[in-house]
């Protein structure tokens, strides 16, 4: 009866949904195919062994992309090392310690960090962070801790250290937001229980909040990592863009994203194709990280089970 | 009975079909071509960034004379220009370094190199004010960029520049901080081609090209990126186009040429290099004018080229004709606009040779 006319509307509606969903699906597929096509000549002619070597030297037709993978992983690693304690502390402050009013304002400010465009971070890094590193921080570290491999070499300011600091600031709001949700999910009863056993506030946070939120914190870190891996603009502006395998935090590096952004305009033939492989590897690594993150976050935090 | 049942099996199929179709559209780059826009003839070009200020001046002046022709030039870099020319998505390309034989072989229509103007690359540095510019030789530059000389107080530098000794007398950090290009660029190609000529170890270990494995230093994006790092970091050294150094009033070094003269980069010394190289310029104009053995020739000089196919594209609306006319204008009237923008005009006798080649293109057409 009138179900017929309803059906027609439903069908059109459903068709529209399928079309839009199809576009999203097609984008992922299309980009993968595009990168594969672009990268195929390099994979075919150079072979995987050469592609993953440590020598990136376009004039000599050496296209080893491991320096970029190294730069990406190391800068993201240090960014996590810096951002995680800050984010966890901020989240604890917001959920358990700060007065509600203060918490709201502070929480808003932390979230604001996520709204700053990355090129603005890059500018700020270039004109504030780098001179500070060059004049104060790095000479101090080299003079006092120069025996460590992390603090050796020439001081440009422009370095993987600068990139990691910028990245850390950029991923802090992400990790903080996840930690906050996770900590909020810890039942109040659990906190009260631990306090009732005669523990201090610190012990309560350690036992009731942090212990039961381990996987949630990890999930937040992985989400932060996902953002750090692909970040291009801000990193390109401060990292120095030189393929280097040094462990020194003073050394310039090149990440996968910054390599593509820097070199694509002048690349031809195999060089361009190798950059396609860099893009493909970046996509695969990001995809893997995303997959890991989902598998962690989809599990409920332990404390919330009951 | 239930039309939705059949939909449920049909829709997902349609969905996959549609998705794969859209995906194939996304995965394959599209090509567009120039044509008539209104009653204006659009001519599209793309390539080198170094000559862009001069080219845009040329196109603007030329359009005043020929309102019916609009030349649109994208300064996306030499490599991008060559790529687009080979893909035939533009009517002409532009590059600082000549195309390689391998690239030329890939061209659907044979390509001619037309030198358009010339320029120089200078070594700029960040040191406390000095009475006169520092002096550098090609060998010293290569060693600095290869990390073999790392201090401004290195004896080999002090020998030429005794003044440096007083600058770093009181234990000031004298590390040389090297700045290079992070993006692929024709400027890097010319600079490293020069270093390969003057240093065997550079030639063997680094080579020359638009993007390189720089042995040391940090990369800045574009001439402006290198400039901003050099300005910011005391003790740094970098290479930029003369045009940049002049307009931004950067200090730059005197270089030694093969005649052991100390040469200041200027339009005269670049033209001197081009003149010195004249008899060695081959018929296809693909050449280098670095390290030319001629009086007062600046050692890191280069031509920049317009890349023109030898015949019109299929479906040409008159773009080819317009390009040839423009070339003739640029090689004659256009050269007069160069000095004001710090580009060195081409030597007269070279211009004559190039014009002859352009005329041949017309006949061939």
Largest β-sheet summary of chain A:
2 strands, antiparallel
- Show unreliable segments of chain B: 1-5, 31-35
Structural class of chain B, please? alpha/beta
- What is the β-strand count of chain A? 2
- Helix segment count of chain B? 14
- Shape descriptor of chain B reads globular
The helix fraction of chain B, in percent, is 40-55%
Radius of gyration of chain A: 24 Å
Average of the residue pLDDT scores of chain B: 88
**How much is the average pLDDT of chain A?**
88
Spell the H/E element sequence of chain A: HEEHHHHHHHHHH
DSSP strand tally of chain B: 12
First-last Cα distance of chain A: 48 Å
Could you characterize the architecture of this molecule?
The complex is a heterodimer of chains A (306) and B (365). Chain A has 306 residues and is an all-alpha fold. Chain A contains eleven helices and two strands. In chain A, strands 1-2 form a two-stranded antiparallel sheet. In chain A, a hairpin with a 4-residue loop joins strand 1 and strand 2 (62-63). Chain B is α/β, with parallel strands linked by helices. In chain B, strand 10 (254-256) and strand 11 form a beta hairpin. Chain B is globular, with a radius of gyration of 25 Å.
Short account of what is shown:
Chain A has 306 residues and is an all-alpha fold. Chain A is 75% helix and 1% strand.
How are the SSEs placed, and which strands pair?
The complex is a heterodimer of chains A (306) and B (365).
Chain A: H1 2-51, E1 56-57, E2 62-63, H2 66-97, H3 100-112, H4 118-145, H5 160-185, H6 188-196, H7 201-210, H8 214-230, H9 233-238, H10 256-263, H11 269-298
Antiparallel strand pairs in A: 1-2
Chain B: H1 3-27, E1 36-37, E2 40-47, H2 52-65, E3 69-74, H3 78-86, E4 92-95, H4 101-106, E5 111-125, E6 135-136, H5 138-145, H6 155-160, H7 163-167, E7 177-181, H8 186-198, H9 200-205, E8 218-220, H10 222-232, E9 236-241, H11 242-247, E10 254-256, E11 262-263, H12 267-277, E12 301-309, H13 319-332, H14 348-364
Parallel strand pairs in B: 2-3, 2-4, 6-10, 7-8, 7-9
Antiparallel strand pairs in B: 1-2, 4-12, 5-9, 5-12, 10-11
Helix pairs in contact in B: 5-8, 13-14
């Amino acid at each position: 009866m009138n179900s017929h006319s309803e059906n027609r509307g439903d069908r059109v509606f459903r068709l529209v949904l399928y079309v839009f969903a199809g576009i999203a699906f097609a984008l992922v597929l299309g980009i993968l195919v595009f990168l594969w096509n672009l990268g195929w000549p390099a994979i075919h002619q150079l072979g995987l062994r050469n592609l993953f070597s440590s020598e990136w030297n376009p004039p000599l037709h050496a296209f080893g992309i491991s320096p970029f993978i190294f730069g990406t992983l190391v800068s993201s690693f240090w960014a996590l090392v810096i951002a995680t304690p800050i984010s966890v502390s901020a989240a604890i402050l917001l959920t358990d310690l700060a007065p509600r009013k203060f918490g709201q304002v502070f929480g808003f400010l932390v979230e604001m960090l996520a709204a700053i465009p990355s090129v603005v971070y890059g500018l700020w890094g270039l004109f504030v962070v780098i001179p500070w590193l060059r004049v104060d921080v790095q000479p101090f570290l080299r003079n006092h801790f120069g025996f460590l491999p992390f603090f050796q070499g020439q001081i440009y300011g422009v370095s993987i250290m600068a990139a990691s600091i910028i990245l850390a600031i950029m991923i802090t709001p992400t990790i903080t937001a996840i930690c906050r949700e996770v900590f909020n999910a810890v039942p109040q009863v659990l906190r009260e229980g631990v306090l009732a056993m005669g523990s201090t506030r610190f012990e309560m946070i350690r036992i009731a909040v942090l212990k039961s939120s381990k996987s949630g914190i990890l999930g937040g870190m992985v989400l932060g990592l996902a953002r750090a891996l692909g970040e291009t603009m801000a990193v390109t502006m401060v990292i120095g863009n030189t393929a280097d395998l040094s462990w020194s935090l003073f050394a310039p590096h090149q990440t996968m994203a910054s390599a593509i952004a820097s070199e694509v305009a002048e690349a031809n033939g195999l060089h361009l194709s190798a950059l396609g492989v860099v893009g493909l590897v970046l996509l695969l690594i990001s995809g893997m990280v995303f997959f890991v993150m989902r598998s962690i976050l989809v599990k409920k935090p332990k404390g919330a089970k009951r | 009975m239930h039309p939705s049942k059949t939909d449920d099996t049909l829709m997902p199929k349609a969905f996959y079909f549609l998705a794969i179709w859209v995906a194939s559209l996304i995965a394959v780059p599209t090509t567009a071509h120039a044509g008539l826009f209104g009653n204006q003839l659009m001519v599209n070009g793309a390539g080198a960034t170094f000559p862009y200020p001069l080219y845009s001046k040329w196109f603007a002046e030329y359009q005043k004379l020929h309102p019916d022709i609009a030349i649109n030039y994208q300064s996306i870099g030499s490599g991008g220009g060559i790529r687009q020319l080979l893909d035939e998505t533009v009517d002409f390309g532009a590059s600082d370094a000549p195309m390689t034989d391998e690239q030329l072989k890939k061209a659907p229509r044979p390509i001619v190199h037309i030198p358009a103007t010339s320029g120089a690359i200078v070594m700029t540095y960040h040191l406390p004010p000095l009475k006169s510019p520092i002096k550098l030789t090609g060998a010293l530059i290569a060693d600095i960029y290869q990390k073999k000389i790392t201090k401004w107080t290195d004896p080999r530098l002090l020998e030429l520049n005794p003044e440096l000794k007083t600058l770093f007398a009181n234990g000031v950090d004298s590390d040389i901080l090297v700045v290079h290009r992070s993006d692929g660029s024709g400027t890097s190609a010319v600079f490293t081609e020069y270093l390969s000529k003057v240093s065997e170890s550079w030639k063997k270990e680094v080579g020359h090209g638009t993007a390189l494995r720089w042995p040391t230093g940090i990369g800045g994006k574009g001439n402006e990126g290198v400039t901003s790092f050099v300005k910011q970091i005391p003790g740094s050294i970098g290479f930029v186009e003369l045009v940049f150094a002049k307009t931004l009033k950067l200090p730059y070094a005197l270089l030694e040429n093969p005649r052991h003269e100390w040469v200041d980069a200027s339009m005269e010394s670049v033209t001197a290099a081009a003149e010195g190289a004249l008899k060695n310029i081959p018929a296809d104009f693909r050449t280098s004018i670095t390290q030319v053995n001629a009086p007062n020739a600046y050692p890191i000089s280069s031509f920049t080229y317009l890349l023109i196919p030898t015949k019109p594209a299929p479906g040409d609306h008159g773009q080819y004709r317009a390009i040839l006319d423009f070339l003739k204008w640029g090689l004659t009237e256009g050269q007069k606009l160069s000095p004001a923008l710090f580009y060195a005009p081409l030597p007269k006798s070279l211009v004559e040779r190039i014009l002859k080649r352009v005329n041949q293109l017309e006949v061939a057409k």
